[in-house]
Amino acid sequence: MPFDLQHWLDCATRPLPDDIKMDVCEELTAHYEDTYNNYLLNGYAPDAAHTAALADLGDPRMTAAGLRETYRPGSLYRRAALGSIAAPASLILLVPVIMLADTSQINSVSGVIINALFGLILGALSIGGLMIAINALPVLIGFGADFRLPQRMIIGGLIATLPFTVLGSLGRLDPAPTPEVIVLIDPLTIFNTLYGGMPVDGLARLHAAVLGAVVMLVGAGWLLLAHRLRNHTLYSLGGPLRWLCILSGMTLLGTGVGTILWDTGLAALMAGIACVLGAVKAAALTLLFYRAAVDAASSPPLRWD
């Protein structure tokens, strides 16, 4: 066996328990040999065929991550459970601190900084947690499930909301303002600065239109994710989780429409409902991955065959 192939196999199978590592190495070697022979038949020189076949195996670190999730998924499920509840739990813990804190000595600039940092921290926790949770769903359901497009829509939309945390904070200079409306789903922040305290001018309208479009993108992502979850029981939580994704998507679409149309009543109503749905959805995802982690811990590692 070529040295570099052996090195690749050692890296790719490092996370696996010894009792199945040999089987996986044999399967990967057979795949390499088939690819190598195909390149030879296509006129490649032996060295070139070896290089091409090894390249087709991909990055051993990525393979190792996939194999670890396949054969030892418990750690992935535990991370997904913690990630799902990270942002809501942080918000719940911070609310009493905000309510009880003495803000009388905080100047307006410090208040803006606190407001922006609070929103950015919650957003980062939520984005990171959702990335882990959505990445774990195909492992739980089976690698035939494809959640890449809804993940890109949801995560991409959430990342796009982070600048609005700063922009919304800059519009408010009263002492220590808290984020006006935190939509717990992810969290998305719909700023009161768009609806009060700012003149209704072209820049504010543009701000609202872009934010509304981003919110609607995330809502469409949740609807697509719900569609991809059809026909999956997920420890009897598949149906409730799917409906939570549908309702979250619909309320986010309504929030986006209200924001674009400058309809404060519609935006506030939809954002409030999305907040409640987001908390319930986070709890459902946490319970789902907790049960999956317990099940994985009580089951023997999967074998290659």
Key terms:
single chain, 305 residues, mainly alpha, 2 domains, two-stranded antiparallel ribbon
Give an overview of the whole structure.
- By secondary structure, this protein is mostly helical.
- The protein has two domains: about 5-65, no CATH class; about 75-300, no CATH class.
- Helix content is about 75%, strand content about 0%.
- It contains ten helices and two strands.
- The chain has helices at about 5-10, 20-40, 45-55, 60-70, 75-100, 110-140, 150-170, 200-230, 240-260, 265-300, and strands at about 180-185, 190.
- It has a two-stranded antiparallel sheet.
- A hairpin with a 4-residue loop joins strand 1 (about 180-185) and strand 2 (about 190).
- Helix 1 (about 5-10) packs parallel to helix 4 and helix 5 (about 75-100) runs antiparallel to helix 6.
- The longest helix is centred in the last third of the chain and has 35 residues, at about 265-300.
- It starts with a helix and ends in a 7-residue tail after the last helix.
Write the layout of secondary structure elements.
Elements: H1 3-12, H2 18-41, H3 46-57, H4 60-71, H5 74-100, H6 108-141, H7 148-170, E1 182-183, E2 188-189, H8 202-228, H9 238-260, H10 264-298
Antiparallel strand pairs: 1-2
Give a quick rundown of the structure.
The chain is built from ten helices and two strands, in the order H-H-H-H-H-H-H-E-E-H-H-H. The protein has helices spanning 3-12, 18-41, 46-57, 60-71, 74-100, 108-141, 148-170, 202-228, 238-260, 264-298, and strands spanning 182-183, 188-189.
